[in-house]
Write a structure and sequence with these properties.
Two copies of one chain form a homodimer. Chain A is of the alpha+beta class. Chain A has three helices and five strands, in the order E-H-E-E-E-H-H-E. Chain A has a five-stranded mixed β-sheet. In chain A, helix 1 packs across helix 2. Chains A, B: This is Metal-binding protein. Chains A, B: Pfam families: DUF1636 (PF07845).
Chain lengths: ~130, ~130
């Protein structure tokens, strides 16, 4: 990718392919609805240093809906079991806490319940390249 | 992290905290045994552009053993359900295929069975920073 991103921005990846068991045959999938809800919620928070990037699949297909949050120098976290109808605000709240830490590790008891129960994986910060 | 890593190196994170149900009460855990097996297998492949980094927890505790592979410009993959007694060589084979792609996406049918069944999540390459 050649896009230039300021280093203090958190990237929120949202799987738009996630399908909920209750999804109707027609219309946007649960993942696409979560993406739209997050974009709308983010528009109401102009101070948030977050960019949303839709992704075709995060390979967490058994735990829809799924997001990942990443930021230079911080751990990457993947979360599943999110609800497109109600989770957008709590996801952005959680990312705000994440952005307030030097390494992305929010103390356990401060994490939203959705992040505690929904954690799928975490990956250390990328090593510094020459 | 301030370590300087050449950009063509793949980083293999290995959770050393993973505990297998069959683990004895004493002795190294399954994750630590997988780490040691990978380090030994890598020593036999001096041409491999892989560095192994032990990690205390990758938060995939329900699917031991767990690893993640990451590389600049490539997708990051997380895999679980790995067996410390037999998986080391196939993991390194799979990373060799990964390293041979521009974006880290190995065609499905070329992937080791362990990676097909064990995939936990994938995360897009980090955006380029100014």
């Amino acid at each position: 990718m050649s896009e230039q991103i300021p280093s203090d921005i958190c990237t929120l990846y949202v799987c738009t392919t996630c399908r909920d068991a209750a999804d109707p045959g027609e219309g946007p999938r649960a993942g696409a609805r979560l993406h739209d809800a997050l974009a709308a919620a983010l528009a109401d928070r102009p101070e948030a240093r977050v960019r949303i990037e839709p992704v075709e699949c995060l390979s967490v297909c058994k735990r829809p809906c799924t997001v990942a949050v990443s930021s230079p120098g911080r751990w990457t976290y993947v979360y599943g079991d999110l609800d497109p109808a109600v989770s957008a605000a709590v996801i952005l709240d959680g990312i705000g806490l994440y952005a307030g830490t030097p390494d992305g590790i929010v103390p356990w008891r401060e994490r939203p319940q959705e992040f505690r129960k929904g954690v799928v994986a975490r990956i250390p910060p990328a090593p510094v390249l020459p």
